[in-house]
Known about the structure:
Number of strands: 0
Helix content: over 70%
Order of helices and strands: HHHHHHHHHHHHHHHHHHHHHHHH
Radius of gyration: 23 Å
Number of helices: 24
Distance between the termini: 53 Å
Largest sheet: none
Shape: globular
Oligomer: single chain
Amino acid sequence: xxxxxxxxxxxxxxxxxxPYSGEHYGVWSLAPPxxxxxxxxALRDVVAALFVGIALGGVISGRLNIVQExxxxxxxxxxxxxxxxxxxxxxxxxxxxxTRTGGALRFAEWAGGxxxxxxxxxxxxxxxxxLVFHQGGTISTVLTGTxxxxxxxxxxxxxxxxxxxxxTTGSPAATLIPFNVWPIYVAGLVAGTVPVLATQEQAIAFFxxxxxxxxxxxxxxxxxxxxxxxxxxxxxxxxxTAARRRARxxxxxxxxxxxxxxxxxxxVVRPPAGYxxxxxxxxxxxxxxLGVAIVPYLWTFFVLGRRGDPSLPIAEAFVLxxxxxxxxxxxxGMRLRDVMDGFVSGxxxxxxxxxxxxxxxxxxxxxxxxxxxPYVVAELGDAxxxxxxxxxxxxxxxxxxxxxxxxxGTYAVLFPVAMPLAWSISPDPGYxxxxxxxxxxxxxFGDHCSPISDTTILSSLATGCDLxxxxxxxxxxxxxxxxxxxxxxxxxxxxxx
Length: 497
């Protein structure tokens, strides 16, 4: 509390020393997200850290009624409503139903006998499922986490290890296996910025052309595979090493100080007397979820040729999967009261995650209000070495996405500036592809590493991991991948120019 008060007083004093430029408040525009991230690491209390960051942003922008100015508009937005109902209530409700039907546990037992034979194969199975469910960061983490968690838990995979696998096969995989909405979104941002990206179709095609240069995504997914196979030459970060040893030797999946985002309602299986769990309890809702979400997308994108606007009914898929899970349980003889108790218990189990997400979304609005991203971009200016530009774009995208917790928000700010800048330095398509891929990979880094990112929060929620344990154990490996990616960009750019 004392730290928070000191930060607010400092904000009052400094706000007048950094006048508003029309887009940002100078260096003070960096303060709200940076303070929130630093406090999250220092205090291991994400809720308090986020609140201080929001309050500081209110002081800087002069909008002191942060509830009315930021919190209510953010949590009352259609975007947050979708997250709350689909990713939290439907996710929590489905897992809660599985605690009544035993469907996920039954799947774990089946997979354990057919596919998984120990910790290593369990982690590889999680890695593969992450690539299969690669439709987007949040979607992938939710599906992979809920599907594989029973298997991972039974095979003594620490929640730090599992959350790392789930998170790194989320956003990075979505940028590398782009049969999803990511190319369409990015194309809308870059179309018309340079001559070779004049149309939406050209921009989408360029997204695919730049894939081999998305070094961060390639490296972090490769690192995750080697990590799952236990073939990394060394484990960056002593905390991940300790987590792996603790889980294998003692069976404790969380650190003794951990406070997982998911509660007991999502982890204790309590089927009613006389109910016989079966694979149908698991495969019927999961099959519905995948079928409704992915089949229309594939049909409209590949068969009907709607490249710019394919159908991706994610919300409908999640709601229908919950209804199917309820229907299967009722058809097999479970009482309606037990079904609804399971659903409600699951929704209660994600309450903490909902609070954290609400504050994270609000901090994003605060960052927009004080101009965090425009300030970073403005400070770059033209003082950039041509050889260093792709690596620098990677680092800037990493910083903005880590500070704001969003890759798409980072893309919206950085792509319209990065493409003309790269083109002005060298109108070579190869140089443009390197710069394009650097922004794409840098945004993915921040999206899955930041403690204020919805993807990071949902990964912790779906795997039952403490949020800050997840962040601190995965950061060293992600930083290694990013460092190697920056080196590759610099070397290849030097050879190209």
